[in-house]
């Protein structure tokens, strides 16, 4: 039986402003990614039992394979999540000060809601080009 979303929100944290250079002794990118993930995981585990841990990486572009600079952690209890938030927020890891907030969930209604049309005034007068063959 899946856990209701409102119960997960009370235990889920967003951890941002993460420094990708957690260990400067590394040579290979694969090792860097693994140790970055491992170091952060060990740090958040000190504050309670973790149900889920997601460190996000860029999928494409010039930063493909590099950490995005934030992670999501879901603790087993609200008490553990609150304690971790209080302790980790503002803690320095690597060369940056971490930011820890309650994670926001996006409802299913928001996902299907139509997005507003983006109009860029500078491009409003642009003409559509016709291709010549």
UniProtKB/TrEMBL annotation:
Entry keywords, A to Z: RNA-binding
Protein name: Probable RNA-binding protein 18
Domain RRM as annotated: residue spans: 11-105
GO function terms (MF aspect): RNA binding
Organism (species): Zootermopsis nevadensis
PROSITE patterns assigned to the protein according to its UniProt record, in alphabetical order: RRM
Pfam families: RRM_1
Superkingdom of the source species: Eukaryota
Gene3D superfamilies in UniProt: 3.30.70.330
